[in-house]
Amino acid sequence: MSTEQTKKLAHRLVEIFNSRDMAVIPQYFSSEFIGHRADGDTTYKDFEQGAKELVKAFPDMRFDLDDLIIEGDKFMARSTMTGTHKGKFMGIPATGKKVIFWWITIRRVADGKCVEGWDLFDSLTMMQQLGAIPKR
Amino acid sequence: MSKEENNKKAIRRFYEEVTNKKNMSLIPELIAPNYVAHGTPEVKGPEGVKNYLTPVFTAFPDWHEKIDYMFAEGDMVATFTTFTGTFTGKWGDIAPTGKKVTSQSVSLCRMEGGKQVEMWAIMDSLTIYRQAGIPIPQQ
After folding, report:
1. Cα A97 to Cα A17: distance, rounded to the nearest angstrom
2. Residue A10 near residue A75, CB atoms below 8 Å
3. B2 interfaces chain A, CB cutoff of 8 Å
4. How far is CA A55 from the centre of its chain?
């Protein structure tokens, strides 16, 4: 993958998440996809399920790409996610509240698909906005 | 060495020397005077970085961040770390619990002249509170 192809894929992924059409995920994520987390690795199935749960929880979710940096077959995207909490998320039943927080994603791509990733979002800010944790 | 490699080296030095060895005297060498870390609250300049890190290192004297992944394009450096620490010192007026914390942090840094000038970072602080046993008041 050239840098230009990686860049195109990164922009395409933002469009897909903003269209909330999770049926196209297999076109852009390898079935061998591995997500790295502090508590262990996750599989493609975990990722797909997580993406679907996110759309259910925030049916109007939107990602605005703030920064995109690319080195060869890897990219990091920093986005601002906005949405309205209409379904259960991280154990919290729908509150109807609006959230706005940062989401940073790193992906390694091969043959046009994401094969490896790291994800981190500002969960503390999100929980505070949902009223699950008051501001300190 | 390319600009990107030099920038990565400077970021790596910050994690190894300041974050892990607690060598605070190196901060002015690695952080630009006009440095801004975006977030709430904003952290400004070398003094701001020192004031931000001091309470963390007081509460977690063994605070350590391992760099999992790092890459760069132009003036920007992306770094993903796994951190560990033990809550053995006071966090504000909260007494230590002796519990260990571990999770992830990610930062995106803009460099100028080999120094950090602008930072966007996310640390999994929710997990820190939970694992450390620092009470999070519920509404």
Report:
1. 20
2. yes
3. no
4. 10
Question: Inter-chain contact A120–B106, Cβ cutoff 8 Å?
Answer: yes
What's the confidence (pLDDT) of residue A134? 56
Phi, psi of B57 (to 5 degrees): -70, -25
Q: Are B33 and B92 within 8 A, CB to CB?
A: no
Residues in A touching B104 (Cβ below 8 Å): 37-38, 118, 120
What does the DSSP assignment read for B29-43?
HHEEEEEEEESSS-E
Determine the Cα–Cα distance for residues A104 and B97; give it in Å rounded to an integer: 31
Structure tokens at B34: 């006009």
Q: Which residues contact B93 (CB under 8 A, 6 or more apart)?
A: none
**Nearest CA-CA partner of A96 in A136, A124, A59:** A59
B65-116 confidence digits (pLDDT tens): 999 989 999 999 999 999 999 999 999 899 999 999 999 999 999 999 999 9
In single-letter form, the type of residue at position A39 comes to D
